[in-house]
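tool_log.txt
---
The assistant was asked to compare two proteins side by side. It first ran the structure predictor on the initial sequence, then on the second. Raw inputs and outputs are pasted verbatim so the downstream comparison step can read them without reformatting.
(1)
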Amino acid sequence: MRILITGGTGYIGTALTSTLLERNDVEEVIVFDNLSKQNYNFFLGHTYSNKEKLTFIEGDLLDSRSLKQALDGVDVVYHLAAKVTTPFANSDPHFFEQVNHWGTAELVYALEESKVKKLIYAGSTSVYGSSKEEVTEGTEPNPRTFYGISKMRGEEHVQRLVDKMDTYILRCGNVYGYNKSMRFDAVINRFMFEANCNGRITIHGNGKQGRAFIHIDLLTKVLKEIAFNEVEKGTYNVVDRNLSVLDLVDVMKEIYPELEYLFINQHLKLRELRVSQDSALRSQIDYTNERSLKDELLDFKERFSF
């Protein structure tokens, strides 16, 4: 099997690449990335197993010619490339549209002319916007940010491929956990960095706002299982926990007993989005999390250099 990963040098892509290279039934993993996020940690400080099966192509989604060439002979595509700038998801519509919308459109055009058998698209629960009630896979999308709108438009392009190949849209919760190519704009990762290095975290709003989360190891498992198993094509929510900021602080206080926290605009009640864990995907793939949040964060803590 030959696999192509767009945005493969990123946070999720780095973890997925390592996992796929370990499989004997994978002939080649092609990482297609324009390095706009300067994720050079992908290339340094560690050696991938079966590295002879890894191919890197520095390319852009909007370069249709190089994209079509990269897809030649590929069986499975993971579309992970995206512009994500939490918490500034509503700052610049063009910033998100260029990649999340039109970049996905270019990929879909190229896939329509290819012989790819399976497309796995990393979407986002942000397409639901905000809700006082827990959302499910049957909830109508209602994005409230430029980022969420661009991801929904990306989904609309991917839907065109349903009759041509096995197509999966995974609406992922906020991803967290240690990885070689870290993202520190995501809330849990940022809090862990601030707690470990500064002894204090900054909380915007009253801290009661809730979000859906999934650990990067668990998400990587889901992505891998879909590629190598018979899974009904469709749109799925992929989340593991619903946590408020204050829930997170309670656990972090157990890990860092001297932790201080500072509220900014504490009078504000920020947008909330909780997502049901009862996904139709769970009946097809077992991705039960055996670890507690505290255990996951303790593991994260051990990864810091000091």
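(2)
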Amino acid sequence: MRRRTMKTALVLGASGGVGGETARALIAHSWSVRGLTRTPRQGEGIDWIVGDAMDRDAVLAAAKGVDAIVHAVNPPGYRDWEKLVMPMLANSIAAAQANDARLALPGTIYNFDPATSPVIAPDNPQRPMTNKGAIRVEMERAIEASGVKAVILRAGDFFGPRPGNSWLSQGMVTPGKPVGRVMVPGRKGVGHAWAYLPDVGEAFARLLDKGDDLPRFVRYHFAGDWDADGTSFAASIGHALDRTVKTWRMPWAVLPLIGLFNPTMREMVEMRPFWENPVRLDNRSLVEAIGVEPHTPLDEAMRTTLAALGCH
């Protein structure tokens, strides 16, 4: 029997932001990648399989024989988050158990209290202050309790050519339109952590390449781009466009009223403390595991992102 040398990963959310970039990175690392999709798709070097992450049988069938499962799927927007997130994760856990595969989960800083966590290490106590954060904690606990091989990589706010649910593409600029004024959620002087999606995907690929050399269950932090005073990220938009852009601050005071009718806006209001307090990620254990963290210079990353969003 010929020995299989190419590893295989199933990516749930391969058409989205972090899932799509992780799929690309894994392919570049000579992995065979399957993508579970609700609508037929082709291309990108991915073996697309039609199915729903809420359908356990579909997930188990798509995951047959894989070495890793990347759980990067989320409900569109923030609709039915409480009802859908845990059942979807349970299906991925079941698939990981059935194949002795490593489960990879993109994590966030929402597991922590921003007022008391200016710098967070992977093993810091988790004290969520939002509904979304509480669910994130529950997700991580479910994975750890299941006993599957797992790696969780937490990062700051995502941005990149595959926008997904990002602050940049849903608030700061408008995809498909030239950039006028840039809406800034944070205050000047308050640091904020950003994570460029292709860099996050590359970090996941390097971690999954290590296979069983990783601990059976492990969390890492991705430092990404640290905007030390809350102004450099918005400034990079101007650098990418080769012109100065005007900024204005998000009108936080009126958002609760809008949130009465808009679930996405309601969830955004909950995130306000993360823009009023600096939360930086300690990535020392990640660097020990994979070497220097993947990092695309911010201006280059922003040029690529705005071009993909149609904002030039």
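---
observation on (2): The radius of gyration is 19 Å. The chain has a mean pLDDT of 91.
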